[in-house]
Amino acid sequence: MNKKFIFLFLAILFLASFLRLYKLSDIPPGVNRDEASIGYTAYSLLQTGKDEYGRAYPLSFQSFGDWKLPLYMYVTMPFVRVFGLSEIAVRLPSALFGIATVGLTFFLIQELFKNRLLSFLTMFLLAVSPWSLHLSRVESESNTAVFLTTLGVLLFYKSLKNNTWFIIPSAIAFALTYFTYAGNYVFTTLLICGIIFIYRKETLIKTKLFFIASITFIAFSGFILLQTLGGNTTKISGISIFGDPSVVHAKIEIPRNEHANPQSFTVRLLHNRIVFGIERFSQNYLNAFSAEFLFIKGGENKAHNITNFGNMYIVEAPFLFMGIIALFFFKKGKEKRLVVYWLLIGPIAASITKDAPHTNRMFAIFPILPLVTAIGFMYVRDWLMLKYGNVKNGIVTLICLLFIFNIGIYLDRYYVHFPRNEAQNWGIGYKQLHVILSTKPFASKNIIMSRPQYSPYIFLLFYQAYNPLTYQKTALRYPPTEDGFVHVKSFDRYTFREINWGKDIKIPNTLLVDVPANIPEFVKKGYQSIDVSLPNGETMFTIVQTK
After folding, report:
1. Which of 18, 49, 414, 522 has its CA 20 to 30 A from that of 8?
2. Does residue 186 sit in the same domain as residue 298?
3. Are 340 and 433 in a shared domain?
4. Element (H, E) at 531
């Protein structure tokens, strides 16, 4: 690249870095539940060599019963060592992976299409993408997996040229996604099968290196699959389409019983788990490409989206549509086939889960969505040049201004309004709660806190950097729920259960912590209390001191 292109590359990379690192400790406002878990587990490993359950350097972390994979956990450890147990320590690895993906994407698109403008445009769209931006600013295994996938595909294409040995580090990068994010068990497997099929002639020529790469991949991925088999089975049973027994009952058993003969062959043929699974999967898959999910509101999980803003900019919608048309009807070649295949398999892993479409689980579709959008933009530009050559520059300028305006709206909402108005979905309230509970008047009192299903224990462990060895010895847990989740009952002076205000208010030397809506009027009027307030003035918790 000449100096002009190097400058442009560095400028976009700087923009991506700034957007991902600016106020990283403060936005989002406090850690979410998974960030607290990963941060505290990394801290526990550093201090004791064991996770919160007392298991020495495991490769599958039980956590809340969701069984986290090991790569991000161990990558976080040196950051906790340097920065302490803090938001920056947990989020910085994801931010760096996100920034690196922006840079790698330029080189990947160059390998695929040999078009510098397309490469820069895709790189820019990824740099400012709401989807990528947010998942790079929180702990995100899926963001890490996207980096590894992008690296793996890039190295594979490099191996098709003179650097044939690159196929081995490519295989390692793909295998590491199995150590990173459970959704990649499905996605990476499908992607590799597609790559091998599309480039079967090229890979067969390099028989020896392809064999070594295959053995390397199988060895790495097989190892982690064997190590995590039990945990993954539990996790899948909890989040799969069939993970909610009430939904299965409503969609299969109730419709059967509405027939005169519920046990007849025809009725059982129409109402069964297979039919329900196919129907739900199809709905989830199509919803992954819906305007509501992509451009209007995103997924339902508040840890992965900001309110009333999609995963992509609205202004990108027509260009994504045009890009898909261009891919299917105009572009040719194996590279086009890979991009289309990647686009189509991206939602599959998320579609087999009960809460799809899911922003985090579907992130495997990146960086293909920005690429397809960039292709659409270039086709629109070329069409305008042919149709309206004289005014083409004016129309393109107008489109660019619309992009800038839409990006500006998102950045305003994200950096100004989001940390103020959505703090209840993050950990800043727990952070303030810890500060109050640690003050001298309250430091020796026992604490009963409601809603154990929200895992308040992990925020308290995180923000006070509680001694992991003591926690491992004193923690008591409730039996696992139907979907396999585990909630903590107590540790040290903390007890987590629903509060019986008539009885618990009589326990001496105790603090009762609950949401304001649950506190009876006689308690509000007759007992001293402290509110834990959020940046927008709302009260997240009320602390009541017994007499």
Report:
1. 414
2. yes
3. no
4. strand 529-533
409 burial type by CB count under 10 A (0-12 exposed, 13-18 middle, 19+ buried): middle
CA 352 – CA 348 distance, rounded (Å): 7
Q: How many CB atoms lie within 10 A of CB 381?
A: 17
Please indicate, yes or no, whether residues 370 and 429 belong to a single structural domain of this protein: no
- Residues 6+ positions from 373 with CB-CB distance below 8 Å: 122, 125, 312, 316, 319, 320, 323
Question: Which DSSP state fits 476?
Answer: E
Length reported for the chain:
547
Q: pLDDT tens across 290-301, in order?
A: 999 999 999 888
H/E element, 490: strand 488-491
- What are 198-232's pLDDT values in tens digits? 998 877 667 788 889 889 999 998 888 888 766 55
Residues 6+ apart with CB under 8 A from 74: 42, 45
Q: Are residues 15 and 75 in the same domain?
A: yes
**Given this model, what pLDDT does residue 404 score?**
94
Domains identified in the chain, total number: 2
Question: CA 449, CA 468: separation in Å to the nearest integer?
Answer: 21
CA distance 448 to 446: 7
Tokens representing 161 are: 């040229």
Helix (H) or strand (E) holding 530: strand 529-533
Strand order in the sheet with 488-491: 476-477, 488-491, 494-496, 446-449, 510-514, 539-545, 529-533
Query: Cα separation of 145 and 68, whole Å?
Result: 13
Q: Please say which residue of 337, 360, 376 terminates a domain.
A: 376
Q: Among candidates 341, 350, 342, 352, which has minimal Cα distance to 278?
A: 352
pLDDT digits (tens, 9 = 90+) for 134-178: 999 999 999 999 999 999 999 999 998 877 889 999 999 999 999
DSSP state, 528?
A: -
Q: Give residue 160's identity as a one-letter amino acid code.
A: L
Instruction: Return d(Cα 263, Cα 269) in angstroms, integer.
Output: 10
Answer whether residue 497 is part of any domain: yes
Q: How many C-beta atoms lie closer than 10 Å to residue 407's C-beta?
A: 16
**Does 281 fall in a domain?**
yes
Q: Are residues 208 and 330 in the same domain?
A: yes
Residue 305, C-beta contacts closer than 8 angstroms, at least 6 positions apart: 134, 297, 298, 299, 311, 359
Name the DSSP class of 447: E
Measured at the CA of 9, the angle between CA 7 and CA 11, to 5 degrees, comes to 65
Q: Do residues 155 and 11 share a domain?
A: yes
- Nearest CA to 132 among 421, 292, 366, 356? 366
Residues 175 and 233 in one domain: yes
Q: pLDDT by residue (tens digit) across 389-430?
A: 667 778 888 888 999 999 999 999 999 999 999 999 999 999
- pLDDT of 282 > 60? The answer is yes
Does residue 135 belong to any structural domain of this protein?
yes
The residue range of the domain holding 518 is 425-545
32 lies in the same domain as 153: yes
